[in-house]
Amino acid sequence: QKEVEQNSGPLSVPEGAIASLNCTYSDRGSQSFFWYRQYSGKSPELIMSIYSNGDKEDGRFTAQLNKASQYVSLLIRDSQPSDSATYLCAVTRSGYSTLTFGKGTMLLVSP
Amino acid sequence: GAVVSQHPSWVICKSGTSVKIECRSLDFQATTMFWYRQFPKQSLMLMATSNEGSKATYEQGVEKDKFLINHASLTLSTLTVTSAHPEDSSFYICSARVYWANQETQYFGPGTRLLVL
Q1: pLDDT higher than threshold 80 for residue A96
Q2: Nearest CB to A43: which of B1, B97, B110?
Q3: Is B110–A42 a contact, with Cβ atoms under 8 angstroms apart?
Q4: What residues of chain A lie within 8 A of the CB of B107, using their CB?
Q5: Partner residue facing B106 (CB), from A41, A99, A104
Q6: According to the model, what pLDDT value does residue B2 have?
Q7: Is B34 in Cβ contact with A46 (below 8 Å)?
Q8: Could you tell me which residues of chain A have a Cβ less than 8 Å from any Cβ in chain B?
Q9: Residues in A touching B97 (Cβ below 8 Å)
Q10: 3-class SS of residue A74
Q11: pLDDT, tens digit, for every residue of B37-68?
């Protein structure tokens, strides 16, 4: 069974700090990795996608992928209260399979 | 990023009626779309995979005769909840798969909140 594990949180960080969100997955055949942000009552919004080992940066967000360790993380620099949301890690094997989601980590950024 | 729209955003209906929800890819073509359901404070649950021009693939436990999916064009998939009952009240979200440079991404629509009285 393909699984994606995330710490449910909440992860509490002060404004301006770095928030570190982690995710592990069980399917070694996974090829595409995503971080989605979901505000309460809203649909998921794509934050980052990463497909190869290493780091990928986009503004305040950095995704890190280590396929050997089956680990993907998301760093949020200079965290803002508006970053408070649930962050969903999702992986997929190929173009013919569905996304497997983790249960999400709730992030709380306090002013 | 790619834009996916849903209509309506909110629907309230009486028990026993049918409700149709539309999911559109606005600036790209999507051969594959997905339908999810989310109950309050719970995880996204995949209901079905919608493929343009072919029958949808339903996840285990999802009644295909109750949740009718039609993907008639490369930009539109519809979900019809037939004979809706209060237990069908939920947040229904579609997503569309996009391929760029041989890499895939999924974008979600804003969701449709269904309340069955």
Answers
A1: no
A2: B110
A3: yes
A4: 46
A5: A99
A6: 83
A7: no
A8: 32, 34, 36, 41-46, 49, 51, 88, 90, 92, 95, 98-99, 101, 103-104
A9: 95
A10: strand
A11: 999 989 999 999 998 888 999 999 999 999 99
Distance CA A89, CA A105 (A): 9
Q: Which residues are within 8 A (CB) of A49 and not within 5 positions of it... i.e. 6 or more apart?
A: A32, A33, A34, A35, A63, B103, B105
Over the stretch A44-70, which tens digit does the pLDDT of each residue have? 999 999 999 999 999 999 999 999 999
User: Kindly report the CA angle at A36 between A32 and B11, in degrees rounded to 5?
Assistant: 120
CA distance A43 to B93: 7
Half-sphere exposure of A26 toward its Cβ, with a 13 Å CA cutoff? 9
Residues of B in contact with A59 (CB under 8 A): none
Mean pLDDT of A65-93: 96
Residue type, B79: L
Closest Cα partner for B90 from B34, B32, B45, B24? B45
Whether the per-residue pLDDT at A26 is higher than 70: the answer is yes
Residue A94 gets which letter from DSSP? S
